[in-house]
Give the backbone structure.
Amino acid sequence: MWKKSLFFKIVYILFFSKFVRTSGAEVGEPLYLTPLLDEGKVAEAQQSSKVQPDIGNITSYCGYFTTNKECKSNLFFWYFPAQRNSGKAPVVLWFPNTSGKPDKTDTIMYSLFEEIGPFAYQNGTV
């Protein structure tokens, strides 16, 4: 069943990605943090993953963790520390749309603005 779900997600991404328009801004290469962590470079991994500039004065970090080196599988994350009591607050892992049916809720951006992130999109503004 998971293979079917994965297949539909890949098809969805490939199909709709040709309609996405970018600003032409250079975004650089993906940030794979596992090699840094394997070498014990935790501070460098943290600094490298910090999103610049802070969006709305909210600190966040993002990148990829390698989940299977042989298959070159990686997991994207976007971490927002708790705005209050961040040292004691639990970490929530949010996996959007686990139904296996591709729709607009498959994207991290949808989750960020509509479901669980620290931002809201209302009347054309963030």
About this structure: The chain has four helices and two strands. The beta strands are 61-68, 73-79. The helical segments are 2-17, 34-38, 42-49, 108-115. Residues 2-17 form the longest helix (16 residues).
